[in-house]
Write a structure and sequence with these properties.
Length: about 675
């Protein structure tokens, strides 16, 4: 029943109650003779007899005798059924009967009168009160009914809208839809356009908004999620108990410091729909998800999407990042084998791999770099906590992180990983992969055979520079990435930041860096320059890695194991305090220790001072320390092993660009001798 129907029923009930309470004669009705044998009724019960305006005489001798013998008292006249009554007299009589006199509390009429009329009038008064209460009750019931019906309708509509939004998100995450549904819904012109949806892109937006409060920024991303950070995908997310299984929900994790945060930079409510960007007076950021750019015309300032839709801009940033590599022999394998092979870079990859780990599947990691080593440790921890399957790590090098860590520290790290439950297989590569029912049969070049449910390839990535050819932009032939100047400009009003940029470092020469800190800082500087700052990029970016809760290190500058290194380590002691690299934290206190130094490329055989040894094999535990990377006897890179929140000091030492006679004295600045 609708609200209007409830209202009509209520009005009808009130009208009937009003008529019943006032007993007015509304008018004549079609003539109908009452039966001659009908007894005379009291006035309050004669409602059904009202309206007999013209009563015909229907009488007999017997009726007349009954009428004469049935004499009533003078206070209650008797209607003669054989005598015609005029309508006016009938109306007056009825009105007189319905006129109520005041009554006492005991029900008798005022003035001491008695008789049926007084009792009748008191009953009429009670009836009116009951009718009024009934009308009020009907109004209340009708209002409540209308409220319940309206509330149910609103709840059902809200639930329906929520279900539709959830279905839209699921389709978007699954890559079955774009947001907005069509490129025609995107604005034709934007002041600030960002190509890419990663860390550098969102950092640039923050810088733009800080310098232009009403800036309107459109971000075009080929991913189907809002901007998020990648480092926790191989680290903290695996150590967070009971993470949310639903891919459309927020990915929350606990950092090493115990604080909790989301994988996404901002919630969905922070962003504006692309269709509403032009109409928003305060500006903001809109993300077009699931769209790709095929060409940038830097001269005309026009961006062309894959479907041919064109968008003009005032300032543009390219922050396309990089794509994970795959092994050629696996990339070209049959579909049955490809079903068991994956790369690792996005939340979708995390969801898939975590589901396999929860099903106690055996997993093989290929690669010994940052992602491969971190992921192997995280999977081993997850498998140990949940009685999962075996975790293998296969790589061609001698030990883990061999391109970054000195040889002695790389071997020690491999032993630590094996102690955590990783089955490390160095000096090996996959020669062939064959599908054997539900598993992959991996033949290695060292003669070993592995049976694995899935293979995760972590062998680095390549910058996304597909725009370079159609857009006539320069790409570095050896390092890859778009070539930019000191202000991160590839062309006028066209900037590049993040993993895809190849920039010139005044101290270390031309470089391309694939680290979170570089994406944040280069994106911020590009955003500032898009608003007119014109600052040069002189930042020495840092990186960090975690091999489980026990091993963590930070690096800055040119950290390359092929360079000569000098390492100064503290003897075994309590672990240093972990800090969060995704947010600011205070310096950690370092306990008093003695030191041991090692020099991998320079030869120092004997002990130089008490408690210090130069033979790496004599140091049973590299608990914490600092490693200096040298080029032309100058410090060009520093790695802090289990020492945290000292990266600012390391940056200062590198920027001094000078030679040091005693690196042990430099190591004291990091308080490992405190």
């Amino acid at each position: 029943m609708s609200i209007w129907g409830v209202r009509c029923l209520t009005q009808r009930f009130i009208r009937q109650a009003y008529i019943l309470a006032n007993r007015r004669l509304l008018g004549p009705v079609p003539e109908r003779s009452p039966p001659a044998y009908a007894p005379l009724r009291p006035a309050h019960s004669s409602l059904y007899q009202m309206g007999f305006a013209d009563v015909k005489s229907v009488c007999s001798a017997k009726d007349v005798l009954k009428s004469d013998s049935a004499k009533l008292s003078t206070s209650q006249p008797v209607l003669d059924s054989c005598k015609a009554t005029s309508p006016c007299e009938e109306f007056k009589r009825k009105r007189k009967e319905t006129t109520c006199q005041p009554c006492n509390e005991d029900g008798t009429a005022l003035g001491g009168g008695n008789g049926g009329d007084e009792e009748c009038e008191c009953r009429m008064k009670d009836l009116r009160l009951k009718c009024l209460l009934g009308a009020l009750a009907a109004l209340l019931a009708g209002g409540l009914l209308a409220w319940f019906m309206t509330r149910d309708t609103d709840d059902s509509e809200a639930k329906k809208a929520e279900a539709e939004e959830e279905e839209r998100k699921r389709r978007l995450v699954a890559g079955l839809a774009t947001s907005p549904p069509s490129s025609e819904d995107l604005p034709k012109h934007v002041p600030y356009l960002i190509i890419g949806g990663g860390t550098a892109a969102f950092s640039a937006f923050r810088a733009i908004k800080s310098n232009d409060a009403t800036a309107k920024v459109l971000m075009i991303s080929n991913e189907f999620r809002k901007p998020y950070m990648r480092p926790p995908l191989s680290k903290e997310l695996w150590y967070t108990p009971n993470p949310n299984e639903d891919p459309i929900k927020d990915y929350r994790f606990k950092q090493w410091t115990g604080s909790e945060r989301s994988l996404f930079f901002e919630p969905d409510e922070f962003f504006i729909d692309p269709e509403d960007l032009d109409d928003n007076a305060n500006g903001g950021i809109a993300v077009a998800q699931g769209f790709s750019v095929k060409k940038v015309d830097a001269q005309k300032r026009i961006v062309t999407l894959n479907d041919g839709y064109e968008i003009t801009y005032d300032e543009c940033l390219i922050a396309t990042g990089c794509a994970p590599k795959n092994l050629p022999m696996l990339r070209d394998a049959p579909p049955s084998v490809l079903e068991k092979v994956m790369v690792y870079r996005t939340p979708d990859d995390f969801d898939r791999l975590r589901k396999l780990a929860a099903e106690k599947r055996s997993i093989t990691i290929v690669g010994n770099g940052f992602i491969g080593s971190e992921l192997a440790c995280s999977l081993a921890h997850y498998s140990r906590e949940n009685n999962g399957g075996k975790v293998y790590q296969v790589f061609q090098e001698n030990a883990n992180m061999s391109k970054v860590l000195p040889n002695y520290l790389s071997r020690w790290t491999t032993a630590k990983m094996e102690a955590q439950g990783v089955c490390v297989i160095p000096n090996a590569s996959i020669r062939s992969a064959v599908r054997d029912e539900s598993n992959l049969k991996l033949e290695l070049n060292n003669g070993m055979t592995l049976m694995s449910d899935v293979v995760v390839v972590c062998v680095g990535c390549t910058p996304n520079t597909d725009l370079a050819g159609p857009s006539r932009l320069e790409v570095d032939r050896s390092l890859g990435g778009f070539v930019v100047n000191a202000e991160l400009e590839a062309r006028r009003n066209l900037y590049v930041a993040g993993d895809a940029s190849c920039f010139f470092d005044p101290l270390l020469g031309r470089r391309r860096v694939e680290h979170h800190d570089h994406s944040v800082v280069s994106g911020r500087l590009a955003g500032e320059n898009m608003t007119g700052a014109k600052k040069p990029y002189q930042h020495q970016s840092m990186f960090w890695s975690d091999l489980g809760p026990e091993i963590g290190y930070e690096g800055i500058g040119l950290v390359d194991s092929s360079l000569p290194t000098v390492g100064v380590f503290a003897l075994p002691s309590e672990s240093a305090t972990r800090v969060d690299q995704l947010s600011e934290s205070s310096d950690s206190d370092v306990p008093e220790t003695s030191t041991s130094s090692s020099q991998s490329s320079k030869s120092d055989a004997g002990a130089s001072q008490d408690g210090v040894t130069c033979d790496p094999d004599e140091a049973g535990n590299y608990g914490k320390g600092v490693i200096f990377y040298l080029k032309n006897d100058k410090i060009v890179g520093i790695l802090l092993w289990n020492l945290f929140n000292r990266i600012g000091l390391a940056r200062t030492i590198i920027n001094q660009n000078k030679k040091y006679d005693d690196l042990n004295e430099v190591a004291k600045l990091f308080e490992i001798h405190a």
